[in-house]
Write a structure and sequence with these properties.
106 residues; mainly beta; five-stranded mixed β-barrel; 1 helix; binds zinc ion
Length: 106
């Protein structure tokens, strides 16, 4: 289990940031994918932007983007009048064989 997955299990969404070039490494890794520098792990902002969405069997699915860089797939709760680019908040995350993200509309 990776650090990233461990933290998700505890409802912490973290990412690795390069110490040298400040690049936010995604997918998260123990070294920078741009300059191979060392990374520190830090929380990702809970604020996301709605990139894409769809509904299936009454459930809403979406892709949310964090910090202009990190895109994740998740489910969405709240208002169903959705517009691409609107603000979302990460309500909950977990890890169960794959990352799970639950967003809510603001
Ligand atoms: Zn770097």
């Amino acid at each position: 289990m990776t650090r990233f997955e461990d933290e998700l299990k505890n409802n912490n969404f973290v990412c690795s940031e390069c110490v040298k070039c400040k690049h936010l490494v995604w997918p998260p890794s123990d070294y920078c994918n741009k300059c191979f520098g060392d990374v520190i792990w830090r929380p990702v902002s809970k604020k996301a932007t709605l990139v894409e969405f769809s509904s299936k069997d009454g459930k809403l699915f979406c892709i949310g983007e964090f910090e202009n860089n990190i895109r994740v797939f998740g489910t969405l709760e709240g208002n169903s009048n959705l517009i691409r680019g609107q603000n979302l908040t990460l309500k909950y995350c977990n890890y169960d064989e794959m990352p799970k993200f639950v967003f809510q509309t603001d």
